[in-house]
Amino acid sequence: MHEAGLAAAVVDALRAERLDGAGIRLLVTGGHADHGDFDGALRLHLAAAAPDLDVTAIEIVHLPSVRLCVGCGREFPAGSPETPCPSCGGCALPVDGRERIELEWMGGEG
Q: Number of structural domains, the chain?
């Protein structure tokens, strides 16, 4: 699972900044189909990579990504890969298949 590699990168970034997970938000764009499965797998890998990290304190936010309708060609933002085209109801593919995770620290002590 690629979540293990993502978790290792997140843990490295948190340790570099001396953050413990409190006030951390992970902004996720693109990639995975099921947000719940992705979130659960990422949290498991985070906990395995850093047992001292409070993974329940980390907020995971899925941002909309641009999708392209295969039926009518319209581009539109969608928060989920299953979101149908607002124009024709057709299926859509991601315009940019890259997955990106940004770490956002909300302040406080690390």
A: 1
Is residue 97 assigned to a domain?
A: yes
H helix and E strand count, the chain: 2, 6
In a domain, 96, yes or no: yes
Quote the domain boundaries for residue 58. 3-105
Looking at residue 64, the DSSP 8-state letter turns out to be: P
Q: Are 24 and 104 in contact (CB under 8 A)?
A: yes
Residue 34 phi/psi, 5-degree rounding, is -105, 110
pTM to 2 decimals? 0.76
The pLDDT, as a whole number, for residue 74 is 96
For residues 25 and 104, the answer to whether their CB atoms sit within 8 Å is: yes
For residue 110, tell me if it sits in a domain. Answer: no
The average pLDDT across 70-95 equals 91
